[in-house]
Amino acid sequence: MQTRRIRPRTAAAGLGACAALSLFAPLLSPTSAMAADAPAELYEGHVQVDRGKTADPQKFTGQVFDDVNENSKLDGDEKGVSGVAVSNGVDVVQTDEEGRYELPVRENMTVSITQPSGWQVPVDEDKVAQFSYNHMPEGSGDFEFGGIEPTGDTPKAVNFPMIESQASAKDDQNCPIAADTQAYDKTEMGYARDGAVGDLADRNDYGACGVLLLGDNVGDDLSLNDELRDVYSQMNGPVRVAPGNHDQDYDAADDSHALDTFRDQFGPSYFSYDVGKTHFVVLDSIEYEGKANRKKYKEKISEEQLTWLENDLKNVPKNAQVVVATHAPIVTHKQVVVDNAKDFYDVIADYPNAVTVGGHTHTQENLVAGETRKEWAEAGIEKLPNTQIVAGAVSGDWYSGGLNADGLPYSFTQDASEPGVLTLEYDGASRSERYTVRNESDDHQLLLGVNSPQWRDWAQKAQEWQDTDKEGEAPEAVSERVVTRDDLKQGDSWLTSSFLAGTSDARVEVSFDGKAPKQSEHTQPGKGEALAKGWEFTDPYTASQNLRTSGSVGQSSSHLWRTEIPSDLDLGTHSAEVTGTDRYGRDFTKTVRFTVVEDEAAAKTESQKLLRKDGFDTQQKKEVRDPKGLDSEEAKSARND
After folding, report:
1. Domains in the chain: ranges and CATH
2. To the nearest whole percent, how much of the chain has pLDDT over 90?
């Protein structure tokens, strides 16, 4: 019998990636430079291809096997694994008792397996999971970034190795999802590495599930895929990759070849895998409009994928926990995003525990099943059938804004969030989730400010200045922690709370100066209302920074609460203690101090003092980047909604 090798990772194993990254800016942080030891069950290997002549070129055959000695070869005494789902992108079959499968050959296909719970597929030297084979006899042709080389005739067999994994069999699983790394150059890749990706490198709680990259992994330049691999090679579990609209071959004639380079370098554009008692599905929700309409796309899930999804789910119990991850989310708090959302929801209708997760919009949202919105209803979705999470972005607002004390762009998002990573948490019976802000602890969940008439007047002037390409002098900045007595007396001055963990069934309370707490109003509760958009529905903390730099402000959020500030507060400094309670009963508390002044003249004086104290005046003298991502179609769309 073969004996299983255990190959512990040594300190030298990561030197190649770190050495390559030394060329990046900013400098490598000490925390992200050294990842925790990789799990013993994580092993390097590859899919085995037998190039011999097949008996029937129209049939694709092979075995899924237990790679006991971890050499990626089906040796004589290694056994097949039965009941594993194998697909050609439309059909889904299960392996027989000997691990064998047979599928119809398609001209342009990726054959892949669904990793079962209790098993782990191999990874390559950069931790990217290896579970697929591209079949394209003639290849892509002459693509700028390579595409797929001709694969030739149908191989005699394609065999998929796996090893047994106690870790992936456990009910308790943490599954990070990193959306929109979207680096347009090596500097931005360095920001990702020293930000949210570095946080993942420091964690060791996701080894079995691994990390899912949720598309727009680079910004159009697919030569940066090598740097992306280097950055994520420090992960402490397998890396799986979904495609986005900025990961396409723009010289492809049509959508059928738009992801050829992606498929060559990362794997299938849609696939599934099991971890614990959760079934993960990744779909491609971008339809490329072709070379003639360079970079144009629709947010749509192809009919081919919906057929595959139906076939894939036939092997999944109806009461299972299911995650359907797509780059473009099915819906956001603003609108239905995917054109054929109703068709998609019909396919997953029998799976009440299914949750959809998206990226693309560079927002961070948690929309609960059962919510209603005017815009959704107008698009034919009367009630949200499944919870939709929008996973934020590693890049935040496309690496925009000035640089913070760590040398990273503030990059506050248009919906009042920060760069970070979503983690889905499973215990076998239920799901929870958390959004971890870059370089912050898990309890960093509240962004607080004062939204007053004076602030809104300044915000409008600042937006007009931004809209005219910053022509003339910028309006003199005001602090979002100053309010005049007159503004308080006339009402409409709120303490705003951007509660990152907030959902429509969460609760936010505010205590002013230690008095009895008041319950806050959720500005977008999902009870059939239209989009709440305007300066009065804007978080002044993040908006103030963006209005001074990038001008990227959305004036709406799915996770903003507001509480009217008492009109009888005395002149001077006051405190507001805010407690947000999420839908799982977890409490997060933060205190903000703000100042009541006599009039606008006093407000200007106090604002300048607070801004200097906050460091924003000196920050303005630092580099304020104009990232390419702000010119992307999704960024423009977000600003114009």
Report:
1. 48-123 (no CATH), 175-437 (3.60.21.10), 446-614 (2.60.40.10)
2. 82
Phi/psi class of residue 83: alpha, beta or left (left: φ > 0; alpha: ψ in -120 to 50)?
left
Question: Long-range contact list for 517-524, CB < 8 A, 24+ apart?
Answer: 517/577, 517/579, 518/563, 519/563, 520/495, 520/561, 520/562, 520/563, 520/578, 521/561, 521/562, 521/563, 522/560, 522/561, 523/556, 523/557, 523/560, 523/561, 523/562, 524/333, 524/556, 524/557, 524/558, 524/560
Total Cβ atoms within 10 A of residue 516: 7
**For residues 354 and 638, what is the distance between their CA atoms, to the nearest angstrom?**
27
Amino acid at 497: S
First vs last C-alpha separation in the chain:
64
What amino acid occupies position 200? L
CA pair distance 615, 41, nearest whole angstrom? 47
The first and second tokens of residue 623, run together, are 């580099």
Q: Which of 148-152, 176-180, 341-345, 472-476 has the lowest mean pLDDT?
A: 472-476
Chain centre to alpha carbon of residue 567: 41
Which strands sit side by side in the sheet containing 420-427, from one edge to the other? 239-242, 211-214, 172-178, 420-427, 431-437
Q: pTM to 2 decimals?
A: 0.92
Which 3 state secondary structure label does DSSP give 593?
A: strand
Cβ pair 281, 312 in contact under 8 A: yes
Burial (CB count <10 Å: 0-12, 13-18, 19+), residue 323: buried
Could you read off the pLDDT of 160-203 as tens digits, one per residue? 999 999 999 999 999 999 999 999 999 999 999 999 999 999 99
Question: Which amino acid appears at position 352 of this protein?
Answer: P
How many CB atoms within 10 Å of residue 23? 9
Nearest-angstrom CA–CA distance, 432 and 442: 14
